[in-house]
Amino acid sequence: MILAIFLITTNFLAFILYGIDKWNAKRGARRISEFTLIAIAIIGGAIGAFIGMFLWHHKTRKKKFTIIVPIFLSLQIIVSTFCLIQNYYLVTTQYEYHSEILPDNLDGYKIVQISDLHNQFFGIKQSGLLKKISALNPDIIVVTGDALDSSHTCYKFAEDFFEGAVKIAPVYYITGNQEGWLNPERFNSFVKKIEGMGVNFIDNEVIEQDNIIIAGLSDKSLKNASGMVDFDNKTINNKTNDTNNLVENNDNDTNSIAGDNRKLKILLAHEPKYLGDYSKTGADIVFSGHIHGGQIIIPGVGGLLSPDFEFFPKLCYGEHVYADTIMYISRGLGNSALPVRINNYPEIVVVTLHKR
Questions:
Q1: Which of 16, 194, 279, 316 has the smallest set of CB atoms within 10 Å of its CB?
Q2: Alpha helices in the chain (DSSP H)
Q3: pTM
C-alpha cells in the first residue's frame, strides 16, 4: 500500500509542478528549476512528468527532457509493474498435517491462516482476498497478528476483511507488534466492532471448538514473559517470572496442555522465534508470522531481512518441526518497514489435517 501511495503522490506532484512551471513561464514569474523537474521524474514521477510535458506543451523542445523523461517513464512502468505484481498477486501454500491421535471428526479438517495484512488493499472490501479464502472452503480461519499497521493505519481495510471472513468460517484473531503501537482507545473500539461481527478475539485466551483447543498469545504477553497456556482450564495464567521462557512449560499434566491427548492443541503466536518455548507447552501446531518471508527471498538462501532488521532469519517462512510441535510461518500479506516484496508473493496458508 505504501508503494502505491508513493507512486500516485509522486506522479501527481510531477504533473502539477510541470503545469505550475508552464504557467509561471507565461506570466514571467519565478520558474521551477529544471533540476527539480527532472529529479521528480527520476524518483518515481516520470508518468506525471511525461503527461505534464505534452498536456501543458512544456519542455517538449528541450533534448534533456525529451530523452530523460521517456527513459525513466519506461523504467518506471517496468519496475512498478514488477513491484505491484510482487505485492498484490496472492498465492496459496498448502500443507498436510498427519497425526495418529487426531480425532476422527478432524480428518480432512482445513485451517486457513492469514497473517500480517498491514492494511494491504486487495480489492473493494477486500474482495480479492476473501474470494481466494472462500474457494478454499476452510473450517476455521486463524489470523496471527498485524492486521493493522501503526504507520499508515486504515482500520477500514481490516474491518472489511473481518466482516467478509466471518461469513466464510469461524475466525480467531490475535494481535501482533503493530497493534501494540496503536492508540489503545481506538484499537479497543476496533476490537469491539469486529467482535460484534463475530470474530473471536483470543489475545491471552484459550477456547475449544470441534475437538480443537486454540490458545492465543498477544504479542505483548510474549515480550513481557507473562503468558502460560493452560488448555485444561482454558485460561492463560500469568505466573511465570522466567524471562528466558516467554511461554511457561508445566510438567504437571493436570495443568498443561500436554494433559489432553484427545484434542488437537493449536497455539497462535505472532513471532516465530520462540518456537522452543511454544513446543514446551505441548502444542501440536503453532501458527505464526511477523517475518514477512524475509521481505526479499534469495533462491537457495532464504529470506533476506526481518522487520526487526535481522539478516537471514532462520525462522522465516514455511513448515518447521521442533520436538513434537510443528510450526507454520506465513509470509504474510502486507509490508511494514520495506514497501516492496521480491520473489515473495503475499501468501495464504492452508493446513489440512489427516488422521494417520
A1: 16
A2: 2-27, 34-40, 46-55, 63-88, 127-136, 155-165, 177-180, 184-197, 219-223, 275-280
A3: 0.83
